């Protein structure tokens, strides 16, 4: 039996204030509606079939609504309700380990998600005074990145490259590498196929990385409106954790598809097309998103949000409209080179064109010390290789040693996919490289060294490794321990 109070509550008439408009026309996923004079941009409206829409603009007295769902149930003359509510999505702790759509509704058949609150889809990025300079490294597990192109927590780093060059793999390695590091990961899929997404999910599940990850699906088969808002949803879900002082890592895979979607929407909204037929505000659309990354000051929880937006280019051309926009609004880019990929270099990251503008401020001092000359050495090595292709005989001793060092370095950085490498291992390997010991090894020996030396060292000096993570500086003790381990290792061999 319900008690008196609940009965009274149930019987009391409920009032809901809403403005009712009428659908005037339906053109693909854009609906024109009249009779909602108090609508504002970015607001959610609801059609009488239950489908949601988002206000995208106005034309004289009409409201342009982007349908977030299937438009087949919407007809001319239908009612559309404005509840005066800005676009918000539910957020909360329970989203971890779940897959959601762009409205943050569960898509994995694992039941409802209990939210802890809601956050706006579109909001202002935190101001300068709310942030502090970056000082923590995000360990990506990709050797080239951790050594030469370090990423800081709170950084926005663009992954740019042709089709099928291993962009997604590097981003996923970074998610895999966060196991046990208390970082919340969000993977946002935009305009990709379902099979692409399924591969990602299976990998994360297999490697126990799903429990700290949220997947936001805006795959190619969902309505265009959902694909458009998916990255903002991912961002809002991440913001919930950031506001509670957690570190968050978000991958947008990929923003090229997102721009295509926005171009489609804009053309239907009859906005003037600009360069490459993209609308003029595409820069704003993306900068509004990437600006939301950052490292918050301790009074605001001290959380951080790191972004890896991915952008696909055509035939290595970085000068396209979308890619140059994104390069200019991020803190650096990782360039995936197709010719390196074709030569079998994995991951095919180009040292020359990749930069991280702020990451080295947060890099471990020990790593900074070991990697400071690597970029230059590598670039000189590549030049030498090209020269020796023309004239192989009569090389100076110095050139020969540079060639050997470069070859050893290239091999050291080769890394299979889904095999993130811990920072300590990289430090030990780079120290051995700097001592010139790897220069004399054959390729087979070098491969064996890469596979087995760190395990060997770890068993000998587990406590030094713990100290290395704590202090993060090069000490005499570390040097001596590696040297002793090297002597013993090669004596066994
Ligand atoms: P797309 O343009 O389809 O999104 P992508 O640039 O994201 O592609 P991936 O899907 O990550 O690239 O990888 C492309 C292919 O390269 C895959 O078949 C993957 O197995 C292979 N690959 C990527 N990285 C490595 C690696 N480090 N070692 C070996 N193979 C790799
Ligand atoms: Mg990919």
How is this structure best described in words?
With 493 residues, the protein is α/β, with parallel strands linked by helices. It has three domains: 68 residues, Beta Barrel (Elongation Factor Tu (Ef-tu), domain 3); 272 residues, P-loop containing nucleotide triphosphate hydrolases (Rossmann fold, 3-Layer(aba) Sandwich); 124 residues, Lysin (Up-down Bundle), CATH 1.20.150.20. The strands form three sheets. Strands 8, 10, 11, 12, 13, 14, 15, 16 and 17 form a nine-stranded mixed β-sheet that branches. It has a six-stranded antiparallel barrel with strand order 1-2-5-4-3-6. Strands 7-9 form a two-stranded antiparallel sheet. It starts with a helix and ends with a helix. Magnesium ion (MG) binds next to helix 3.
How many structurally independent domains? Answer: 3
Under the CATH scheme, which architecture of the largest domain would be assigned? 3-Layer(aba) Sandwich
Give a list of the ligands.
adenosine-5'-triphosphate, magnesium ion
Distance between the termini: 81 Å
Beta-strand residue fraction: 15-25%
Structural class: alpha/beta
Count of discrete alpha- or pi-helical segments spanning 4 or more residues: 16
Helical content, roughly?
A: 25-40%
C-alpha Rg (nearest Å) = 26 Å
Output mean pLDDT: 93
Largest sheet: 9 strands, mixed
CATH class of the largest domain: Alpha Beta
Number of strands: 17
Per CATH, the superfamily of the largest domain is P-loop containing nucleotide triphosphate hydrolases
Low-confidence stretches: none
The CATH topology of the largest domain comes to: Rossmann fold
Give the CA-based shape: elongated
């Amino acid at each position: 039996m319900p008690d008196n109070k609940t009965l009274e509550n149930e019987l009391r008439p409920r009032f809901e204030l809403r403005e009712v408009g009428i659908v005037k026309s339906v053109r693909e996923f854009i609906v024109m509606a009249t009779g909602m004079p108090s609508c504002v941009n970015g607001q959610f409206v609801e059609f009488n079939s239950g489908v949601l829409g988002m206000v995208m603009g106005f034309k004289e007295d009409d409201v342009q609504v982007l349908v977030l769902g299937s438009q087949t149930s919407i007809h001319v003359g239908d009612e559309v309700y404005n509840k005066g509510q800005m676009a918000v999505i539910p957020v909360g702790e329970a989203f971890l380990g779940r897959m959601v759509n762009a409205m943050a509704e569960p898509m994995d058949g694992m039941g409802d998600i209990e939210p802890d609150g809601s956050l706006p889809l579109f909001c202002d990025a935190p101001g300068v005074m709310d942030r502090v300079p970056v000082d923590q490294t995000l360990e990506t597990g990709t050797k080239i990145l951790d050594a030469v192109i370090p990423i800081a927590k709170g950084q926005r780093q663009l992954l740019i490259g042709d089709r099928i060059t291993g962009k997604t793999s590097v981003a996923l390695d970074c998610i895999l590498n966060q196991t046990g590091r208390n970082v919340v990961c969000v993977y946002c899929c935009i305009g990709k196929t379902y099979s692409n997404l399924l591969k990602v999910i299976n990998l994360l599940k297999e490697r126990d990385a799903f429990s700290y990850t949220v997947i936001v699906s805006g795959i190619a088969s969902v309505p265009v409106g959902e694909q458009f808002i998916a990255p903002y949803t991912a961002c809002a879900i991440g913001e919930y954790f950031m506001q509670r002082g957690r570190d968050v890592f978000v991958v947008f895979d990929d923003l090229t598809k997102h721009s295509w979607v926005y171009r489609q929407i804009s053309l239907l909204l009859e906005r003037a097309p600009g360069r490459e037929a993209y609308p003029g505000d595409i820069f704003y659309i993306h900068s509004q998103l990437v600006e939301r990354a950052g490292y918050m000051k301790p009074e605001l929880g001290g959380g951080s949000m790191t972004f890896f937006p991915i952008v696909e280019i055509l035939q290595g051309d970085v000068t396209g409209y979308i890619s140059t926009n994104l390069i200019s609004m991020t803190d650096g880019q990782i360039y995936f080179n197709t010719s390196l990929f074709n030569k079998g270099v994995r991951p095919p990251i180009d040292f020359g064109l990749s930069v991280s503008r702020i990451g080295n401020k947060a890099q471990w001092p020990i790593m900074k010390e070991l990697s400071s000359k690597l970029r230059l050495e590598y670039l000189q090595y590549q030049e030498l290789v090209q020269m020796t292709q023309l004239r192989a005989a009569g090389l100076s001793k110095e050139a020969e040693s540079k060639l050997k060092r470069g070859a050893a370095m290239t091999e050291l950085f080769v890394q299979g996919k889904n095999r993130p490498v811990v920072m300590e291992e990289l430090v030990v390997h780079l120290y051995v490289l700097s001592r010139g010991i790897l220069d004399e090894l054959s390729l087979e020996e070098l491969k064996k060294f890469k596979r087995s030396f760190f395990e060997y060292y770890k068993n000998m000096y587990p406590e030094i490794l713990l100290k290395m993570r704590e202090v993060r500086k090069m000490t005499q003790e570390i040097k001596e321990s590696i040297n002793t381990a090297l002597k013993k290792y090669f004596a066994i061999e």
